Prior knowledge:
Layout: H1 2-5, H2 8-33, H3 35-58, H4 60-73, H5 76-84, E1 89-92, E2 98-101, H6 103-109, H7 117-120, E3 135-148, E4 151-166, H8 168-171, H9 179-184, E5 189-196, H10 198-209, E6 212-219, H11 222-227, H12 231-250, E7 255-260, E8 263-269, H13 273-278, H14 283-286, E9 300-305, H15 311-327, E10 332-337, E11 340-345, H16 357-372, E12 375-379, H17 386-401, E13 405-409, H18 415-427, E14 435-436, H19 438-444, E15 449-454, E16 474-478, E17 492-495, H20 502-512, H21 521-534, H22 544-555, H23 560-566, H24 571-582, E18 585-587, E19 591-597, H25 604-615, E20 623-630, E21 633-640, H26 646-651, E22 656-657, E23 661-667, H27 671-688
Parallel strand pairs: 9-10, 12-13, 12-15, 13-14, 15-16, 16-17, 19-20
Antiparallel strand pairs: 1-2, 1-5, 3-4, 4-5, 6-8, 6-9, 7-8, 10-11, 18-19, 20-21, 21-23, 22-23
Keywords: Membrane, Transmembrane, Transmembrane helix
InterPro entries: DDH_dom, DHH_sf, DHHA1_dom, GdpP/PdeA, Oligoribo/pAp-PDE_c-di-AMP_PDE, PAS-like_dom_sf
Pfam families: DHH (PF01368), DHHA1 (PF02272), GGDEF_GdpP (PF24898)
Amino acid sequence: MDIMKKTKIEQxxxxxxxxxxxxxxxxxxxxxxxxxxxxxxxVVIIAFVIFQMVIYSRSKQAIVKECMNFMFEQSQVQNYLLxxxxxxxxxxxGNGMIIWSNEAFQKIAGDxxxxxxxxxxxxxxxxxxxxDVSHAISHIEYQKKYKDGDQEKEQTLFYKVExxxxxxxxxxxxxxxxxxxxxxxxxxxxAAYFFDQTLLKxxxxxxxxxxxxxxxxxxDNYDEILDDIDAVKRSMLIAVAxxxxxxxxxxxxxxxxxxxxxxxxxxxxxKYLDKIKENKFSILDEIKTINLGNxxxxxxxxxxxxxxxxxxxxxxxxxxxxxxxxxxxxxxAVIKDGEDISYYGGNCEVMERTTRVKARVxxxxxxELLESKENVVIMAHKIPDPDAIGAxxxxxxxxxxxxxxxxxxxxxxTISVRAMVDELNKSGIYDEDMFIDNEQAIxxxxxxxxxxxxxxxxxxxxxxxxxxxRTKTIVILDHHxxxxxxxxxxVLSYVEPYASSTCELVAEILQYVDSKPKLxxxxxxxxxxxxxxxxxxxxxxxxxxxxxxxxxLKRNGxxxxxxxxxxxxSIETYRIRAKAISEAEILYGRFAIATLxxxxxxxxxxxxxxxxxxxLDIDGIEASFVLTSVHERVYISxxxxxxxxxxxxxxxxxxxxHLTVAGAQLVDVSLDEAKNIxxxxxxxxxxxxxx
Length: 691
């Protein structure tokens, strides 16, 4: 107690207390002698108490620090060990102010008296540890300044900071009434340990940079471009392409090996990957500059697999990435890092394949699958459009021709397909369960059911996603580019981005099936209507095979007059479309953004697509985006002519499509919020030079 009496804390606490007791005693005596003097003295006492409380509140930090010094003075051995501890260590109060620190901490932080921890380490959160948590770990960077001769330099240090909340009452004796305990019992302390991880991070980065990237490079249109050039120049063309590919890989100290006539295998260190990204895979543009008399450009598909636990995993990732690159039309690069996928390039329209070999192979495989299953369920995307239903009707006919029971899943008959569906239902030649809803589809779908998904390859966009888990025999027929959310493990996938529509693909399949099913005129009308809508009256994404498919449908009885009647719309729909166009906003002088509300409107997404197409007729507009609100979702229809790759923009929102025709869906956002998201995304992509 003798030591404690000599401390500043005892003097601070005890003297005012004794003075207060004496004054109170005197005041009581004065009440018996002179009431006026007693009242005056009582006022003085109250003022004295208030003054002492103010002094106490302002000196609280000093008192706490004094308590800590007193505590450490009681154990000189512990104090010495903490001072010499090689790990930087500091004690903080609840507000992050440094109360005490050891020598190792002072070496990195300098004189820290009276400073908060955040003043020294800017990226340490002010709320160091939440009140309901006793332990927290942070990773920080610290720019330490030092002198090298006459120059002042900075060194970046990396620390793992472990912080522990200390409650004094947890380790103090309940009977301990010392001033230290009394002062600290209501003030938690925070012990902070700083573990230097600079070398560890350096070695981790070196290890990361030395990991091998496994890559594949394919020439997309090898056969087509050789057929397009004189025989004497073919070897020279391939030699020039070969040299450019080798130079591209040699610039990153990699190794390239030609495995087939149009395929290359490459390996290089991961530290060079950032360099390739910065150049945005310049080889994709360089390869197009080769011109030895060829009328079409040569294009490449590139895929890199990174961060696999083994070389085999990285190679498999590269193969999966190549499937995506080819499924998206080629002329692009894909980097696959586990589940994360990045896309680069893809700014050229997909070239139409002139060969019919693939269509024949897919038609034969589909026929075998149909013959092996008793039931066939055909499913499109939510709010199906004419292309989706037209393709489904064509496959329905194929199933019937092979003696199979087929069904088309459709929950809502929108105005865009109503005329088509009504004609089919009224014909009397189809079963009543030709069209079924989700509940009926779930009841009849089992392991022995063939599920055909048309006009969509994104699992979340299908009419009934649960069906994908009820059978393992899934077939995908689609003309939209693949993305990372594609339906997993289909037994047959025919995804061709070059095609104008899914109806075009189905028309080709029907021609190459051995049984040669005969379409009913109304079925031919449905498929022709689907092609008409998706090509915007044969203006967008049409090729030789598009018109050959249309000719096939015409031979099967397609009536253009009836098809035109199917496409007619009400005056109200026309007014809604006109209003959306008139209120469209022009952004950055090159993008048009319009909105329309789908409440009370039949087939709002179809109207949105029509508005997108019409906005492109405005001079100077390079891309259009129409936002349609339907059932707490915002559907985005994106269109362009050739300047802007809208598919890359829509992929920012989890959507996809083609270079000039794409779409996406946003959930739980309003039209205004969606519009702002589009604005910010366009601004960001434009600043990066991606659009």
